[in-house]
Amino acid sequence: MNSHSPQRRPLGALALAAALLLGTAAAAAQDTRPAFSDDEVKIGLILDMSGQYSDLTGRGTVTAAQMAIDDFGGKVLGHKIELVAADHQNKADIASTTARQWFDTGHVDAILDVASSAPGLAVLEVAKEKNRIVVFSAAGSERITNDLCTPVSVHYAYDTYAVANATARAVVQQGGKSWFFLTADYAFGHTLQDTASELIRESGGSVVGTAIHPFNTSDFSSYLLSAQASKAQIIGLASAGGDTVNAIKTASEFGITRGGQQHMVGLLLFINDIHAIGLQTAAGLLLTEGFYWDMNDATRAWSRRYFEKMKKMPNMTQAGTYSAVTHYLKAVQAAGTDETAAVMKQMKTIPINDFFAKNGYIRADGRMVHDMYLFEVKTPAESKYPWDYYKLRATIPGAQAFITPEKSQCPLIKR
User: Fold this and answer.
1) CATH code 3.40.50.2300 region(s) in the chain
2) Which of 271, 376, 404, 406 has the smallest number of CB atoms closer than 10 Å to its CB?
3) E strands along 185-269, which residues?
4) CATH architecture of 161-289+374-398
5) How much is the average pLDDT of 250-272?
6) Contacting residues for 114 by C-beta, under 8 A, at least 6 apart
7) What number of other Cβ atoms are within 10 A of residue 355's Cβ?
8) Mind listing the pLDDT tens digit for each residue in 109-130?
9) Pairing status of strand 153-155 against strand 133-136
């Protein structure tokens, strides 16, 4: 062999070198893979845009979500934030089909509100199957964080337990011991009645009867006559939106509450409902909300910006959606990715401090824990300016307002 000829390397050394080069190249390729599923963060809202709950959700919720995106700068970590919205027409099958299409082909990373409980529960199942984040502000069923809890879902603004807990207990403590329920015939109404009934009995009251009415009914006369005949002190409305408004208006027209022998209690009332009913009829009603536009300087500042766009004040679910969108985007930013598990981990780590909630946090079951408020509707004489409708009766700390971990059936909560 010529002394100037290169020496041959053993075959094993060449194989090792090749493997190292391939490994280095693979690692480099892995490191340069985008941390985002595509070149944007896409948020979806599945709402009632044209029906019974369109005033409570609808365009107002879309506006609130877009305000959150704009306030965030329109981008997160250099990626554009896009918002899409759909009308589920209060049908669970439309809601679930929309969610499936969005997750499968629409590049939607997270659905950050679904209006009403039946569509909400349908979307919850799709999000669980597809391992995508879903957050609820307008759907009320406490099952979302109870027996149907998932690692990918968050319940944000309120739930049936919180509103029933504060309102029903307060009314019983004030002497409203006997109750008759007018209950909307769908998941939310039944859950609200069942929860309120349990809390009423725990507080020393009783439920003497129930009338189940169709969703979005226009004639409450027969149901209210049954309630009147029951002689119950309290006629409890386990409903929302137009059903609650129409029941209260009809009761006033019939003079059922005249004389003070019977009182109406709406277990879920929004400021939109009070605006529609009018203070002359609604004065004195007790209700529980997680937000009121006129609470403090921060709520007023944001609500006036919202009012400029919508020409009405925001409700609890619309303010909650703004907060939820902002919190989601902060979590994406902190995680450095839109991957579900990483973002959800940050959502449950980062505290929530904004105009909607102070020292809020998301529990293992997905419940966003924050203070709730018991309000009384003002009389016309007490109201000093437009949308000046509430006076604060009590602040219920979040740990007391929502179902406790000890009572929860969620398997994600460690006992």
Assistant:
1) 40-158+295-366, 161-289+374-398
2) 406
3) 206-213, 234-238, 263-266
4) 3-Layer(aba) Sandwich (3.40)
5) 91
6) 45, 46, 47, 88, 95, 120, 123, 134, 136, 138, 139
7) 19
8) 999 999 999 999 999 999 999 9
9) parallel
